[in-house]
Amino acid sequence: MTDQLTVSVLGTGIMGAAMARNLLRAGHTVRAWNRTRDKAEPLAGDGAHIAGTPAEAVESADVVLTMLYDGRATLDTMRRAEPGLRPGTVWAQSTTAGLEDVAELAGFADAHGLLFYDAPVLGTRQPAEAGQLVVLAAGPAEGRNRATPVFDAVGARTVWTGEDGATAAATRLKLVANSWVLAATTAAGESLALAKALGVAPEGFFDLIAGGPLDMGYLHAKAGLILDGRLTPAQFAVTTAAKDARLIVRAGEQHGVRLDVATASAERFERAAGQGHGDEDMAAAYYASFDGDPTA
Fold this sequence. Notes:
By secondary structure, the chain is an alpha/beta fold. The protein is about 50% helix and about 15% strand. It has twelve helices and nine strands. The strands form two sheets. A six-stranded parallel beta sheet has the order 3-2-1-4-5-6, with helices on both faces. A three-stranded mixed beta sheet has the order 7-8-9. The longest helix is centred in the middle third of the chain and has 30 residues, at about 170-200.
């Protein structure tokens, strides 16, 4: 297995920056690019080369790792990277994208001779910074000696779902997992909002379900962010949650399934964003239950 790789990280937001730092800690060479260069610049202090363009970033790369907002942004960025791409380069596509987007990205990879890996990740800011993400991956055996060290550097576990990234097998699993995460986030916020409206102390609710099948660590984590006012920096932003919820709804529609909870969650996240909470943690969807400021 290759000891050291040159990895191009395109997209250095919350997740991409953390992944880049873990790649550097693992001894890999990192060439980073972000649409807003200021977000990439801090990585220079960790040893990354900051590129001015996507094409510059992917020059001489063994692996290209994309972690951008959505499928459209990813395709646009890879088109800008074309002059620097080499046939045979591994492309690990970790953006949460729609099923049709993955097919289009795989088509781009095929046209340019890239080894395409559909590789979204499960986890938010903290596990990303700790290198404890779960990587969901589908891609050819041919390039796994280069893809695997990258996945090992950013994640605690890799779940392989197949050998053809174009099937979007990994993204399908990610959307199912995210449907649960977003539903649980919505439910946590609504329960706290109802408790406030009815004059019920949240601690009474937590004590009621403690240790039973209805109790869950995720509820306490998200409720704690709301109750303690720790919504920034976001673990996973409201605007990104809204985008993912819409992807889930569309995937369901494409396959004849009506997803009422995901639809309602998307609307709540979008309403919270409209109230000014878009850059806060997705737990801030709590505020979508109120017409005004619930703390006023």
